[in-house]
Every structure is written in C-alpha cells, then in structure tokens.
User: Which sequence fits this backbone?
C-alpha cells in the first residue's frame, strides 16, 4: 500500500505525489463513505424543490444554514407557504425507523405473551371455564383487532421529516431556523394549500376548504365523531409536521383545544376507542399509546402527500 495525495496530483501537478505505475498496480480512490473526513472537507449535496427561485441540487458550505442557502438562491416565490416547509434528513430517517422497528417488536412480544396467558387459563379447573368463556371470546376478538393494527404499524416507514417548529405566521426566510445543512438534506417549500383534513373515527373523513378563522371545533362539527371515537386523545397534525394533542389542553382555563385556529394543510386526527375492561387491559393501553405515536409517522406522510 503506497498512499498518495490525488488532489495534489490533479490540481497542483505535484511530481512527488504523481507516482509511476507498474504492471499489476491497482489504484484505489476512497470516498466519504469509506473514510470519515473532517467537517470542512466533507461534500454536502442537498436538494431543494417547490416555491423557490431556483430549485435544484446544490453543494453547500460548512455551517451554511437553510435561510442563507435560500437567500443565495434568490429567495422564495410569492406563492411560497413557509409554515408548511418540509425538511427531511437521512440520519433522522434511519434513527426513526430503528425506533419504529424496536417498538413494533416490543408490541408483538406483548401480544404473544398475553395470548399464551389466555391459552394457559383455558386449561385450568373446569369449574371456572364457563365463567371465562365469554371473556375469552371477547379477548379473541380484541386480539384480532390488535393484530390488525400491529400489521398496519409494520407497514409504516419513517420519512425522516424534522419539524421546524415555526410560528403560524411564518412567511419569510427570517422565520426559518438557522439549522446547519447536512449532506442528503431535502427541502420542499409548498404552495399555500386551500384545505384542512379530518381522519380517524369521524363520520365524514374528508378534506374541507380552509377559510381564515376556521377552528378545530368547526371541523369536528362538519366531520362528526363516531360512537367509538376517543375524543380525549384527538390531536392536530399541523402543516409544519408538529403535533398539538388535546390532552395537553386538559384542565387549562386559558386554552381550549377546540378553539385552535386551523392553518392551511392542518389535519385533525381522532383515534378509535379500544375496550379497556378485559384481561388485555395492559396490552391495549400500551398498544393504544404507541399506536397514537406511530400514527404520527403514517399520518405525517399522508399529510405530506396531500401537500404535494
């Protein structure tokens, strides 16, 4: 192995680095994936699309931020919806997917454990079997319901989106955070959507026209809640990727979830109620909590597809 500096050979024509090749020699050139370089020597390529003056793929300087890059490219178009900016990062996608896989395996293990307990109980004293027969049937149906939801969770894939936590009035480059860009970052600045959405345990799962001043209460009234809706666990998926949960507003007199003003592209999500009065109490409660968390991944991607 004889190391040499390719940069000095090509750019500076350094004769000391320009080694003479012999028959059978193999020249190997490493890339950034083979060898971790210092920050100032790393190549950072990012993709930017949507309502920007010059969409495309660009190389950014070390420490360059999103606002500085957009300013260098000529800024935004008049139709740009800064609050709905989509910022995705590969390192975040990989981390989110790892966490998602761990949670899925944990839920599956809990479900199998509870199913084994039910099977064991059925082999006990004959005198108690009749008493638990109806409960066992309910548990069987519940298990099928939970398994169906688990299969749905397994289909989730993280998109690596990072919430920029913008103010709802954000409409300028200065409102974007000074976040240094990394290689592989992807930014989409959408145009202003004209709708809000309702998903989950609602009678009318649809898209509504957005009007200034429209609130969560308005969309609940229009969509209507089903009998098995868990209204206390409802949450608002904002166009910027952040989550506003109803439970965070409980017991607060100065804030009210229903009075939140909707932004274009916002989505109201109402989860379905799960029976807690069974032997599966712990599993269903845990499953429900994780389902809501994981739904944020799936619904986030659905909302992004609508924005696009």
Assistant:
């Amino acid at each position: 192995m004889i190391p040499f500096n390719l940069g000095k050979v090509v750019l500076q024509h350094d004769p000391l680095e320009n080694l003479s090749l012999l028959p059978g020699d193999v020249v190997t050139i490493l890339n950034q994936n083979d060898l971790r370089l210092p920050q100032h020597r790393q190549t950072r390529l990012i993709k930017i699309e949507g309502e920007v003056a010059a969409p495309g793929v660009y190389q950014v300087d070390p420490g360059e931020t999103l606002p500085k890059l957009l300013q260098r490219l000529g800024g935004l178009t008049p139709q740009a919806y800064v609050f709905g900016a989509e910022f995705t990062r590969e390192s975040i996608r990989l981390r989110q997917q790892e966490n998602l896989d761990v949670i899925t395996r944990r839920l599956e293990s809990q479900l199998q454990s509870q199913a084994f307990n039910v099977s064991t109980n059925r082999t006990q004293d004959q005198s108690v079997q009749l008493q638990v027969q109806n409960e066992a049937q309910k548990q069987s149906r519940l298990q099928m319901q939970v398994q169906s939801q688990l299969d749905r969770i397994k289909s989730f894939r993280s998109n690596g989106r990072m919430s920029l936590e913008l103010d709802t009035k954000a409409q300028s480059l200065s409102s974007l955070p000074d976040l240094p860009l990394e290689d592989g970052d992807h930014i989409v600045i959408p145009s202003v959507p004209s709708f809000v959405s309702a998903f989950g345990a609602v009678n009318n799962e649809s898209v509504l026209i957005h009007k200034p001043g429209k609130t969560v209460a308005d969309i609940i009234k229009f969509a209507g809640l089903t009998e098995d809706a868990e209204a206390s666990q409802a949450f608002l998926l904002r166009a910027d990727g952040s989550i506003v949960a109803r439970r965070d507003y409980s017991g607060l007199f100065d804030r009210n979830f229903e009075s939140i003003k909707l932004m274009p592209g916002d989505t109201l999500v109402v989860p379905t109620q799960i029976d807690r009065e069974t032997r599966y109490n712990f599993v269903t409660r845990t499953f429900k909590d994780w389902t809501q968390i994981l739904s944020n991944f799936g619904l986030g991607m659905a909302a992004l597809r609508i924005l696009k």
